[in-house]
Model the fold of this input.
Amino acid sequence: MSNRAAKSALYSASPTGEEDVVGGRKATIGEILTSEKYFKWTLLIPLLLFLIAFMLYPLFFSVYQSFHIGGVVGNATFVGLQNYVELLHDPDFWVSLRRTAQAVVVCLAAELLIGMGIALLWNRDFKGQNVFRGLTLLPLLVAPLILSLVWNFLLEYNIGLVNQVLSAIGLGRVKWWAPNIALLTICGITVWQWFPFSTFVLLAGLRGMPKDVFEAARVDGASAWYTFRRLTLPMLSPLIIIIVLLRTMWLIRLFDPLYGTTRGGVNTELLDWMLYRTSFVYFDIGYGSALAIISLYFTIILCAIMFRLLIKALEATK
Amino acid sequence: MVKKILFWLATFLVVFVVLWPLVWIYLTAFKAPADIFSPNLKNQFLFSVTLENFARLFSAQYGYLQSLLNTIIVSVVSTAFVLIVSLPAAYSFARWNTGGGHLLFTTISTRMFPGVVAAIPFFLMFRNLRLLDTHFGLILLYIYFNMSFATFLLYGYFREAPVELEHAALLDGYGRLDVFRKVVIPLILPGLAITAIFCLVWSWNEFLFAFLFTREAAKTMTVLISSFWGSIEVQYGPMAAGAAIGALPTLIAAWFMQRYIIRGLTFGAVKG
Done:
């Protein structure tokens, strides 16, 4: 598109709204695309194309497949709601759903508590604060898969550093990948990587709070706990909801740390792992699609609820 | 005084817990197998430095260099395309609220759309189009994967850019396209750079799509490293060496972007 065409598009924007005609002749496509009326849509064309191809298509395809069986080779057979009915009677599904919920709750609670504790600890000016801040943020951008492999190594029963240290100081080795605690171990790895996220979101909130309110509370003789509960916590609530919202979105989709550690074994199969196993190990596309649609449904409901909470919290603090 | 000591104890404990596993990657990478597999704690710390693991990692048998190149190609090209798609879209959303918020919400909801869900239709489609195990296929997936994130983050930066400059440029006779190219984009260049780095990091770290959609030719770094933790044999040495190199760019990015990480991770909601 030439500069001249772009410039003339501005002049062509007449108040009567007859943008399509320039000086008595028909406007070129370039002129229409950059005209006042259509430019905002022109900018969106690439995104819309990608949304259609990469969101609408897979969605419709998944819905279609979930009513069929077969289809990897040969034609798919229509079976109605059979996949969904089977899924709702599948104990594996309910177990992995419950585990996913457990993992989300455990990780979120731990991240928020640890995050809040450290945010309160560091809510002051101290020597080298920027260095400590930078160091604590380091694991956040490292690939979760790499970190889970490293933790797998650290927690190995015989040669893992953690167990070697535990045994050296007389506490005895722990079977971190025993079926009853393996899921908690995976949660621990996730919390380790992500608590700095909560810490620094909350710290940003604490730093931005008006000083005078806290000064007044102190003068009035309010206890530290009372101030925290009645002043700090309500003011932080939008940030807490943002953390809960974003982390839930990511935690529901927990997959990489499973691949780096238990590979869905020892009672750690979460929703996405079950999806992977059904669709890519057993190639049961119909069943996998039904699972995918239900999983998506849960996610959207959860996020919609939290968006509403977020808007409420934002209004309450205004 | 006691309070001060407790504060520093807690602070160092936090940093130690965060950093130790990362330090351990780099220590293990330089250890010989005998030291790695030694049940004696002393050998874990007093070891002779060796480059053996790196030598094995880059040998023809493992092909780490090729996987690293694959990751670089896919990350850089997909990030470039993400910016081409997201930059104009974010500007449109920020300046005209195009679609009344619904379109923006639809865009962001691709992030909720589980990767594994999209993986099934894409897998069948890619199989028919012969895009499995190709760079191009993976690039397409990463554009999809990063598009919504980039649009949202850039949206925040466009919202902060002063609209008066645009009006002035329009009055001076600039067309909309020139205003966008010559006035608005230079204004948000820092935001653009931050967004680009985030997209690079996400593509660099991505595992699920790479694992499902590549076999040999386009295998990325994360997929290769994951294969060291196999069912037959566990190779901690090459794994640690691979992790040491694979994690390095992201550690550097985290260090230099520390002021922007929180903003990026919250899609621009928290300024940090």
